[in-house]
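Because showing beats explaining, we let one protein speak, sequence and backbone structure tokens together, and leave readers to judge.
___
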Amino acid sequence: MLKDAHLLEAALLCSHRIASLDEVARNSFANASAECSEIADVVWVNPTNSSEGVCDWLDEGGMLEPTRTLGRREAVATLRKDSGLRKSGKDLSK
């Protein structure tokens, strides 16, 4: 996670947006957002995940959508953990 801290630092200083393929880092930072509210509003997208519609999102201006934030992902991760759906493949973020 430390090796990816520069991504968060840059996002906090600039646009509050990160595009990265690293799901492990994204999930780690999403979990950390429960304790660090500064990063909860950072949008993190994975351009290789077609279900995220990153190209369309960028074409529409790449707005700071709450459903794409690390804080929202932390809430979804908690729901998955609590409900036992972690590996079910169901998308609880909508």
